[in-house]
Amino acid sequence: MKRTALLFLLLIPFLSSGQWNQPAGSVGKEYPRTDFNSYERRDDAVTLDPERSDYYLSLNGEWGFTISDPGSLNPAFLSGERGRYDTKPVPGYWDNMTPTALDGLTAPQLPSDNRAGIYRQFVTIPVGWLDRDIFVKVKGLKSGAGLYINGNYVGYAEDSSVPAEFNISKFVSDGTNVIAIAVYKWTTGSWMENASLTGTGIEAGVSLYSQPRVHIQDFFVRTSTDADHKKGFIDMDIVVVNNSNYESAAEAWFDLMDHNGKVVRYNYKEIIVPGTGGKDTVSFRAEVPNAKLWCTNDPYQYSLMLRVKHNGRFTEYIPYKVGIRNIEANGEVVNLNGQAVTLNSYEYNYNGTGFRKETIKDELMDLKKQGYNIISCAYHPDKNLVYSICDELGILVTDVINIDASLTGNSKAEGGTLGNNPDFVNPYVQRTEEAYYNSRNHTSVIELNFSEKAGRGYNIYRVNQKLKELYRKGN
What we know:
Layout (H helix, E strand, L loop, with lengths): L1 H15 L25 H4 L10 E3 L2 E8 L6 H4 L7 E5 L1 E5 L19 E10 L7 E6 L2 E2 L1 E6 L2 E6 L6 E4 L7 E10 L14 E4 L3 E6 L2 E12 L6 E11 L5 E10 L5 E11 L4 E11 L13 E9 L2 E10 L4 E4 L2 E4 L2 E4 L2 E4 L8 H13 L4 E4 L6 H10 L2 E6 L23 H15 L5 E6 L7 H16 L2
Parallel strand pairs: 24-25, 25-26, 26-27
Antiparallel strand pairs: 1-13, 2-3, 2-5, 4-12, 5-11, 6-10, 6-13, 7-12, 8-9, 8-11, 14-15, 15-18, 16-17, 16-19, 19-20, 21-22, 22-23
């Protein structure tokens, strides 16, 4: 037994290498999707408070902490060895950064004094979770991180501006489990986030949550109006996945409610979903006569409740706010529900860790009082909380893909700029997908583009092709 355990621990550094120092992007995490919360009971779902769910656990707070060589992580710490270790708050940074550390280097080279800060937490998984899909969600990692459960390598995430989700169902067991996150100070992803290289760590919340084996994996909501802007339409696609071992019958439902909680429209469809990861996409159109439209002066939001019925009972509820609006953009003027709106834009990115709603809301309300009606994400996407507040306040948003490669210059030669470096094609495309799926359901977001600092060359061509593909498919 002792020899087996020793061999297992020695394998961990090998499993940890090969991502942070290679431009492969994220590996082993869930495909990007809408940031939402899942509930078992409707009464809890309508509160929009994830803490009300029996299948949600915030892991924010003090974590055990140690610093390690990035190429040979501390296996004893990863696997839960008790001892005298430091602690660090989550969210929070464990060290400062400056882009000047990359001076004199060529991508994907990294500073020689690179280190990894390893966060560790002991978590008890309730017995009732073990026959469900269990996920870890980290809402902000900088500049890249590997996830370990009970010493086992799960995956690696790099884009610091979008949530990283990992399915850890096969890694956990009943009772106490060890969750470790190794955050690398410098990764190849650092070359793609030049303007935001201020600190390294976990800059937003960490949580555990679970969903039934048959559950909503993602959804896509689009709105429009008729020519007179009296009647509203909500088109939605709901993706149901079945991670059980057998084909299963289910029902996908939606309810649309007004401010008073009155159900305006509802519908459902019966589906048969193949097992072992099979999926089915259900499409609905909700027609709302005399719709209350969302605009910058009166950002009215309807409440959408998605739910799944399985084995004769409702097993999942997912709430989401949606505003009905019709928008056509033309330069500095947009036509919103038939009314011309002159855009007064402000470059905005929330800076800091923790992302307190009250602080962000105060900042955005102050901008609106100054006459700004649209914010432009400066160099990287904002967290979903910012977009949700813009939905609520009636502030339009132009989102941006998290690529700032300004340190590599503007040379047109192959490899002369990150945008023309073939080694970085996959990270460029991956970050495009992540940004698209992250913000596509927010009423306030009217455009997704890439920064002028993303570079130039073939990789930018691939980004444009991917954006066209995503918008064309509407998936």
